[in-house]
Design goal:
three-stranded antiparallel beta sheet, mainly alpha, about 280 residues
């Protein structure tokens, strides 16, 4: 009788645990789909509509808008309900603009003779020999066939704790996933991929034998002279920055912080066709 009760209890615990994991996985997926749907509305909004929507009754709103006109830079800071705030510099997470710096680092590596963009990633990473892999160019242009991300177990805890989705996803996890994917189509359509840029960060680390955070910080501050731009160290003035572990794989896809002054100067580099 006691043995039967123990078996029943154990089975119940397993079922409950599996149900919690499944519900959390569905919740994470649902939140990501909802966010994608909401983001899809943005292109149709005017600047004023977007500002009103974002700041409406939002006491935490601090939005900085920069303008470059006739080579001159200026910016305005907006707060709750679009009220203009003092013109002070604030530190923001720049999200996927991080990828443009990762791409610039790849360009630098090409110039240094470290990377050929026509090579497939197995030229630089230790991966199973019986699969087909994307080229560096395909990763840069989001035409590798990789999904935006691949589910990993840390995402469950991240959702439950309200953390960055990619917190705790290690380079080993990304390398293992990349090695399990056989990208054997001749061509893939454009499909935005955070995972692809996580792989690019890993390639950069391998060819330079240096961690991505060091590579990025030295590059943007010493070569681009963007002194307020770096991998997030949570030292900004606005708070609530995404948490990252030092060895997280997705840092190269979205972990940079900066301010409007650096970002406008970075934009001018693009407009003036700077080397990078």
């Amino acid at each position: 009788m006691l043995r039967k009760l123990k078996k029943t209890t154990k089975k119940t615990v397993i079922i409950v645990f599996a149900s919690v994991v499944l519900c959390a996985a569905f919740a994470v997926g649902g939140m990501m789909l909802y966010s994608k749907f909401q983001m899809g509305k943005i292109p149709a909004l005017t600047f004023r509509e977007a500002l009103e929507y974002t700041t409406r009754n939002n006491s935490d709103a601090v939005i900085t808008v920069g303008i470059i006109k006739d080579g001159q830079m200026s910016y305005t800071v907006y707060g709750e309900n679009g009220v203009v705030l003092p013109a002070e510099l604030h530190t923001y997470e720049i999200g996927s603009l991080t990828k443009t710096f990762t791409a610039a680092l790849i360009y630098k590596a090409v110039g240094d003779g470290m990377i050929n963009v026509d090579d497939t990633i197995d030229e630089y990473l230790t991966l199973p020999a019986d699969n087909d892999y994307p080229t560096i160019t395909e990763l840069l242009t989001h035409t590798s066939g990789y999904r935006g991300y691949y589910f990993e177990s840390p995402m469950i805890a991240n959702y439950l704790k309200g953390r960055n989705d990619y917190y705790g996803i290690t380079k080993e996890m990304v390398l293992k996933k990349a090695g399990s994917l056989n990208m054997n189509k001749e061509n893939y359509d454009f499909s935005y991929s955070n995972f692809g840029y996580a792989v690019l960060g890993f390639v950069l680390e391998k060819v330079y034998d240096t961690d991505y955070t060091t590579l990025l910080n030295e590059f943007v501050q010493d070569e681009l002279n963007l002194r307020a731009t770096h991998i997030s160290d949570y030292s900004g003035d606005l708070g609530n920055y995404w948490e990252w572990k030092s060895d997280d794989a997705y840092i190269s896809a979205g972990a940079v912080t900066s301010n409007i002054d650096d970002m406008m100067r970075y934009a001018k580099m693009q407009l003036e066709e700077d080397t990078y």
